[in-house]
Structure formats: C-alpha cells, structure tokens
Amino acid sequence: MNTSEWFAFAAILVAALSALYARWAWSEAHKANKISLHGHKKEIYDAFFELKMHMEQEEDLAERDHIHKFYYGSRNARFYFCEKIADKLQNYFDQCFYIADLNSTKITQEQRFDLMDKVKVAKALSVEIEKLISEDIKLSD
User: Fold this and answer.
1) Which residues contact 88 (CB under 8 A, 6 or more apart)?
2) CA distance 50 to 55
3) 81 three-class SS
4) What is residue 15's three-state secondary structure?
5) DSSP character for 131?
C-alpha cells in the first residue's frame, strides 16, 4: 500500500467515525428535546390538576383568582399537546371561568341551576382531559 492509499483509508475511517458521532449527537439532541417537551407538558398538567382540585373542592363556589392561574396553561397547551387536548383544556378553562364569574355576582335560582350544570360539565371534562393527557405522556415516552 502506498501513501495515497493510506490517506484514502484514513479519510474513510474519519468519515465513518464522523457519521457515528453525528448519529450519537442527533440521538442525544432528540432525547433532550423529549425531556424539554415533557417538562412543558408537566407544567401544564400541574396547573390543570391544581385547577381541577380547586373545582372539586369548591364546585359552584369557585374563585376567579384560582381560575386565572390556569390562563397561560390553557393557552400554551396548543404548543405542546395535540389540538384535541388543547381544545379540551381551553374549554375546561372557559367552563371554570364562567362558573367563577357567575358565582362572583348575585344570582337567581335559575342561574344557580345553570351553574350546577356547568359544574357537572366541567367535572366530566376534567376526567376526560386527565385520561387524554396520561395517554399522551405514555405515548411520548
């Protein structure tokens, strides 16, 4: 083997090692992105869960201050979850906000019945959302 063949062999070896390193770097970057995405999803889930607990404890006496805490979570869900989950989170926030808003005023008996219906809808929606988010997180692992 002459010198040019050694250089060609060395170049092939360097290229192969570079390709392996690039694949490893891609794999690590992919893992880091999944971890980051998982962190954002967890923040939204934690905010949702906090709101859910407030709604279960207070029901028709929910307070706007607690509902407002989920505002950004409901909006940011569009960046980290599929459209179906994001829409349900938005709907849940809207239902809870309506309950708290109506609760903050003097209401009639008819409005109280409407409020209780909204509480039932919000409760059913929260169960559905929790299931969807759990499935989404399991799929992304």
Assistant:
1) 125, 128, 129, 132
2) 9
3) coil
4) helix
5) H
